[in-house]
Design goal:
Length: about 120
């Protein structure tokens, strides 16, 4: 039934500003860029920006894999994200943390040496 995670969509109030912010954070340009939706390919998954989608940090959190959770967390804060949950060891060498992007959405980071999407 489920084939795996494909897309995480973040609601944004200013799609041009969100596109610029995520392009800078991800270091790539979107593969799909329209006024109604912007999509980035990130490690085989899609990060989408949608001005019609609900915004906020009250729903589930998608955790994006990173090489160094502390470094990624600090980079996001320097780029204008707000601290939500500092990076911490959740056991067995796995580190997680969350920030709020400038548009109010939870953005999770995870360094998990035991998981590979391959």
């Amino acid at each position: 039934m489920f084939q795996g995670l494909r897309t995480v969509v973040y609601g944004v109030d200013d799609i041009a500003k969100a596109k610029a912010w995520y392009s800078e954070i991800l270091g790539i340009e979107p593969y799909f860029d329209q006024p109604f939706y912007v999509g980035f390919t990130v490690g085989g998954f899609e990060l989408g920006l949608d001005p019609a989608a609900p915004r906020g940090a009250s729903g589930p959190v998608a955790y994006w894999g990173v090489e160094d959770a502390h470094e990624a967390y600090q980079r996001l804060l320097a780029a204008g994200a707000q601290e939500r949950t500092p990076v911490h060891d959740v056991g067995d060498g796995i580190y997680t943390g969350t920030v709020l992007d400038p548009f109010g959405n939870s953005l999770g980071l995870i360094k998990n040496p035991h998981f590979s999407p391959d």
